């Protein structure tokens, strides 16, 4: 493993999780409409659903209990934390509400919504590197989706397939020890 200066994390499944149990029937319907927006013909319904998404996202997205500790570990090691996510633009409101900007600079967050291509497409990773202005050899990427890990590896980015049943700080610590041996 080469020396790294940036640790990139997927959001959903690594730093956060979704819990839909707090949604009422209308919110579930609106979320479904929004998630299938390219198939929705009713423009008024779509506009209404879109207007409610930031509020819904605040209810359903939650930081993992060990996310802040993990991001602080990265900073304590004088590494740059980065987030690479397939998400919607409204997630920015959530980032603010949970305090992620204390740990991750806005310019180190890469969202497929803004770049027009999703993980695991190799183009996503190329654009991510351009956005955060880093060489692929300097990145270690964590994702819970094997396809996304595979896409990153095809792009030349060292990656860790994260099992969300494990504690993220422990996994990060193992990987940081490997980096320090270099």
Task: Chart the SSEs and their pairings.
Elements: E1 6-9, E2 16-18, H1 25-35, H2 43-60, E3 61-63, H3 67-76, E4 80-85, H4 91-98, E5 109-111, H5 112-115, H6 122-132, E6 139-143, H7 146-154, E7 158-161, H8 168-180
Parallel strand pairs: 1-4, 1-6, 4-5, 6-7
Antiparallel strand pairs: 2-3
Task: Describe the structure using short key phrases.
182 residues, alpha/beta, Rossmann fold, 2 domains, 5-stranded parallel β-sheet, two-stranded antiparallel ribbon, 8 helices, 15% strand
Description:
The protein is an alpha/beta fold and 182 residues long. The protein folds into two domains: 6-17 and 63-180, Rossmann fold (3-Layer(aba) Sandwich); 18-61, no CATH class. Helices cover 46% and strands 15% of the residues. It contains eight helices and seven strands.
CATH C-level of the largest domain: Alpha Beta
- By CATH, the architecture of the largest domain is named 3-Layer(aba) Sandwich
Could you say which overall geometry the principal axes of the C-alpha atoms support?
globular
- Count of distinct strands: 7
Order of helices and strands: EEHHEHEHEHHEHEH
CATH topology of the largest domain: Rossmann fold
What amount of the residues lies in strands? 15-25%
The end-to-end span amounts to 7 Å
Question: Major sheet, described briefly?
Answer: 5 strands, parallel
Residue stretches low in confidence (pLDDT < 50, at least 5 long) are none
The name of the CATH superfamily of the largest domain reads HAD superfamily/HAD-like
Binned, the helix content reads: 40-55%
Q: Give average pLDDT, whole number.
A: 95
Q: How would you classify the helix and strand content by structural class?
A: alpha/beta
